[in-house]
From TrEMBL:
Domain of life: Bacteria
InterPro entries listed in its UniProt record: Dimeric_a/b-barrel, Monooxy_af470
Protein's name according to its UniProt entry: Antibiotic biosynthesis monooxygenase
A Pfam family per the record: Monooxy_af470-like
Source species: Cyanobacterium aponinum (strain PCC 10605)
Amino acid sequence: MYSSAFIFEPGEYDEQFYFLDNQIHEAAASVNGFLGRESWESIDGKRKNAIYYWESMDALKEFSRHPKHIEAKRQYTKWYKGFHVVISEVKHSYGDGKLEHITPNDRAKNS
């Protein structure tokens, strides 16, 4: 399993941003191997993080080549003050079992 975290500082959004943002989410969901998405915002609202989870690196790469994703990348300076992407391989995940999450609960497998 892999995750791609898109960390960014929001700028000014317009109608085109919201339209394209929705299309990107739909494009991600259409990729075989897409597992889900979650997002976070810093307490002060200055940074946001959209995390996508993928079954494989091939699925993540397929999404990265999607025309809507490429279109958004070309126009990012219109909507973001800056961004940083972190691609990670999920080796382990666990919890107390009371919170559902996209990643598997490794502790539940071993009990």
